[in-house]
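Is it possible to get an amino acid sequence alongside its tokenized fold?
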Amino acid sequence: MQGVGRNKMTYNTAEYETIGLCIALEAVGDIVNHALLELRDVKSIPGETEVYFHSHIHKQLFLIRLLDFTKESGDNRLTGVNGSCLDVLREACSTKSFNIEGSVDELTKSVEAFDNWINQRTNITLWLPTLDINAEIEVPRLDLLFITGNQSKHNLSRLTGVSRQFTEYSKLTATLFPWSQSHSL
């Protein structure tokens, strides 16, 4: 700790990185908690794994924790990073305070792989029965996580952020409903 002022502490880079890594590691442990889920190998696709949740509540808790890990900003006075646990890991890969002979390389690869996976666009099917439409749309996984995680986390009165996210997808209206611009998702 470099300086202690009145209720204000400052840390050096290694101290910030240590605190951030401890917080991120605890968050990862909470996400992949085997009391919530079971990982099963997909026999037909070597290297692939499926996640099964013990209950609907466990699935919701997983989504909430994953959303917080990827999007929820912590106090930068504690970690030195103005961002989420994922941002803290990215910063640790950049500052490399504890890098010994390339030991940070595996963390860097894992963070990059997760970042690529969470930002990958995936197809989902929307069934709109009143319009007799089965629409396929392509959405980044991070956006799906934002919607499902917040839906799990908050009651209906606090879902305005999710509503804004749906508004972003209203750009698809012209594709889904070419006969009218009045429909929105």
